[in-house]
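Protein Record: Sequence and Backbone Structure Tokens
======================================================

Structure line: whole-number tokens from a learned vocabulary of local backbone shapes, matched to residues.

Purpose: to set a sequence beside its fold so the mapping can be learned.

___
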Amino acid sequence: MINIWRLTKIQLLSSFGLNKALHTKDVKERRKSLLLSIGILAGVLMIAAASFGYSFMMALAFEQMGRMDLLLAIMMAVTSLVGFFTTVYKASGVLFSYRDYDLVMSLPIKTSHVVASRMLQLYVLNLFFSVMVMLPAGMVYAIKVNPGALFYLFFLITLFFIQLLPIIAATIIGSCISWISSRFKASRIISLVLTFAVMIALMVGSFGMNENGQALADMGTGLAEMVFKLYPLAAVYVDAVCSYRMSSLLLFIALSVLSFMIFATVLGTRYKAVHTGLTTSHASGKYIMKPLEASSPFRALYKKELRRYFSSSIYVLNTSMGMILLLVMSIALLFVSPEKLGERIEIPQFSRYLSTLAPIIVSLFVTLSCTTSSAISLEGKHLWILQSSPVSKQSILLSKVAVNLTITLPIVVVSGVLLMISLRMGWTESLLLLVIPSIYACYSAMMGVIINLKLPNLEWTSEVAVVKQSAAVLVSMFTGIISLLFPLGISLLLPHVNGKLMMSGVGMIMIAVCIAMFRYIQTKGEQLVQKL
């Protein structure tokens, strides 16, 4: 057991760069770590506050229906589904495709202990998200219902078991996708296509589970049936926490723990074989001699960055899912008019709000699809090659920015055109819908590369630690969201302000910021890269 704990602790400390922060004697590094910790704490508090606000708004509706138990049921199901979606494409990287596999497996430690430590790493990462979402929801439920003492005990106990079954399901699906794709030549592309197909199918299936309109006719009963049908374990959870039933509590814990232990044990016995199967790929023996082509240094760097991007399924999935969701949303609005959507979700003048805030909504998806916030860190131990190469370091950084724009701008244009059609926008609104997200795409790309230069993680063992868990990714994401809060707040709090004029002002400010960042990369880029 002590080996499992030690391995898990080392993996978690290295994932977030905490090991270096705790043991460094450099004053600048300590100051940077302190500021980063404050920023992460602020981000966690923001997510918790948002969760509390959403839970409180839902509680107002559920209180009128007399179904406050639905609050915990929905938040528990949402937490599990989000954990499942995020684990599908990171499970394979955490469990199998980590760089120090040979080193770890050569240690005098049982294979089952290695597997258990890797599973616990996934569990702790998902538990962190569960706490941020479920604790505010539990607080809202306690305020509205004023439950007995058993509620608090059962709620805290079950909090530690919510993510176990989603981790198992996501690991199985993610491993199957990796295994199937490894049987083909274009394994990376097939893996991406299969993962996107599974996620989109699950999302479409979850939205289509109650097409008969029962939830509209009988909101309380229909919504409960939809949630419990989507995730049956939510019914056991609600029965245990809200009704204080010991049998349901024991059943919930037993199902979660036993399934987790059985899965970890079985995986431990076949771990090496599974790892070999997942990491073995098809290689073609054909080689066709072609004429060599010369290109400019920037074009060569751009092609290299583009190949590096598409070579990592974790990298692509984590940074392109926002743009895929934007495209799906834009297509869906062609078939469901904003007016009907506003009637269904009971928001008056929803169409007008959507037309006004469309540039901000699209920009949000853009800022969540930043590839540059981990592009420097992914160089890892090979960074010295770029540092010693006879090309300007500004070209290296701008080639990473260009890849980010290649991913975001085409989808921004296509989604913008689709939204223009569905929202029936005028010329001014249509222009702003294309220009504002494009400006934010440039802002997000350059901000990401600057933040990654300031907060690099070059000593990673798994790409998941860089793409999903690094400090640069978190700071870049929160910076992008914060940059959108100001125009969003003005639009919601001051509805009488001319939306077109406000968006134009935001665009001018962001253009100035982008120019300043571009000049910073040009003047300081060489120095920042060499200091890494």
Remarks:
- DSSP finds 25 helices and no strands in the chain.
- The two ends are 38 Å apart (CA to CA).
- The mean pLDDT is 78.
- Residues 27-65 form the longest helix (39 residues).
